[in-house]
Amino acid sequence: STQSTGEITGEMKIGALALALATVAHASVPTIPLRNGIRMPAMAAGVGMANDSAAEAMVSAALANGFSSIDTAHDYGNFDGVARALNATSVKRESYFVTTKVPGCGVLTQGLQPPCFSNTMKMAEESIAALGLETVDLLLLHFPPILGWLGGCKVGSKPCVKIQEQWRALEALYEANKTAAIGVSNYCVDCLECILDNATVVPHVNQMQTHLGIPQDNHGVRSLCRAHGIVLEAYSPLAHGKALTSSALATVATAHNKSTAQVALRYVAQLGQVGGGTDLAPLVTSSANPKHLQEDLEVFGGWELSSVEMDTLGAVTTPGCGLEAPGSCCL
Question: Which of 70, 159, 216, 327 is least surrounded by CB atoms within 10 angstroms?
């Protein structure tokens, strides 16, 4: 097993700081247990593609309307706006969960460049400070050092070496209590196996593009994550609106008297329970509109999709995966 006794000991010792940071969520939003005892809210407010002023408005609106989880990243370029909103909120720090991401190392067109360990440490620490925080709740590697849909994360390959150096940096930040949990994003099976090959701390989370039209197991990613106790979090759960055109979705929405967006989100959340899972899958949504924020939270309002409905929606094949980052689409 790649999960050593040393990891269990390390994770059990996390300490009061990390535990205090990440256990409280708005009453209407369930929390999902991570392998180390931290609980993350099942829905986060994302600020991807937003400038500083838009991100500030989105975070402020989310916290004012019942969200208790914020998702940002270095590459979004909006830390100033997020920091302003966090500084201005009356919500106490221990009552909201913050996720940020550092880019992959060694992609010539984007991300950070080698040396991967030291530059990952530096960027992560700078990111936490830029958010006006002393520590975050979840720190992710944003994408692997590959291009497009191309693979290349096989154990022993040059990209894998870079991934493992970056992961050592996240492990060091985790042990130093700079983050309550660590993980990855856009990591398909090959790239996950690269980390699992020599990890001291197995990733707590893998954040992947997940929506109607993508196979439920996503080419083995969900099965691999479940086998190693990695929570699979969903981003782009509506595929930027492209996932809302299915006639099957419309039929299910009518049956539940819900919007197509609410059913599409509920479908993604319940994917966490497909194939023997016990917990809902956490997901990232995005809006500054209070009405839309409230409708998103109503996904957890005491209703659920039947197994037949999950199967029906799982058979939908469009839209497919959209290339949003290196590694975002698995083959």
Answer: 216
Residues contacting 145, CB < 8 A, separation 6+: 104, 105, 106, 107, 111, 159, 162, 163, 326
| pTM of the predicted structure, to 2 decimals | 0.90
Q: Residue 94: its pLDDT value, please?
A: 96
CB-based contact 281:54 (threshold 8 Å): no
- How high is the pLDDT of residue 20? 37
Helix 52-64 with 290-297: angle, nearest 10 deg: 50
Q: How far is CA 237 from CA 82, 159, 281, 319, in A?
A: 22, 28, 11, 11
76 is catalytic: yes
Residues 6 or more apart whose CB falls under 8 angstroms from that of 182 comprise 138, 139, 140, 170, 171, 173, 174, 201, 203, 204, 205
pLDDT in tens, 282-313: 999 999 999 999 999 999 988 999 999 999 99
CA pair distance 327, 142, nearest whole angstrom: 10
Q: Which of 76, 174, 187, 267 is catalytic?
A: 76
